[in-house]
Amino acid sequence: MKDCNQCGKCCIKYGDGALSATAGEIDMWELFQPHIFQYVKDNEIWFCPDTGVQLNRCPFLEIEPSQGKEKYTCSIYLSRPEDCRHYPSSIAEMIRDECEMIEVKDLQDSNKAQTELDDLMEGSRPRKQ
């Protein structure tokens, strides 16, 4: 599996209302990060603060100036929703989403690739009980 190359495919695909935030995250944003909370409406995320209309892209996804292929960054990376922190959760999900981290060897042995992904994402996912 390759390192993330910041292609933005996951953020673009899920940043249009397919994400959710926990009540705790929303509460923390309201108290400590109003610049994020302003995009919350009825406990759902990524609504235009001016119109109340659902955005079709995460307002915190930014294109990094570069030469060549575009790279994307998250301006709220440390405060991003759990949905973002936990992605990707499976090799099948990565294949479906055309994740550029996938290599041919991952397709040839998906169990090994899933183990590698689980190890890679260990610090980003909730602990199994």
Summarize the structure.
The protein has seven helices and four strands, in the order αααββββαααα. It is α+β, with helices and mostly antiparallel strands and 129 residues long.
The geometry reads as: globular
Order of helices and strands: HHHEEEEHHHH
Mean pLDDT metric: 91
Please summarize the sheet with the most strands. 2 strands, antiparallel
Q: Terminal Cα separation, in Å?
A: 27 Å
Parts with pLDDT < 50 across at least 5 consecutive residues:
none
Please, how many domains? 1
**Assembly type:** single chain
Radius of gyration, in Å, reads 16 Å
Structure commentary:
The chain is of the alpha+beta class and 129 residues long. The chain has one domain (9-124). 36% of the residues lie in helices and 9% in strands. It contains 7 helices and 4 strands; from the N terminus they run αααββββαααα. The strands form 2 sheets. A two-stranded antiparallel sheet has the order 1-2. Strands 3-4 form a two-stranded antiparallel ribbon. Strand 3 and strand 4 form a beta hairpin. The radius of gyration is 16 Å and the shape is globular. The model has no long low-confidence stretch (mean pLDDT 91).
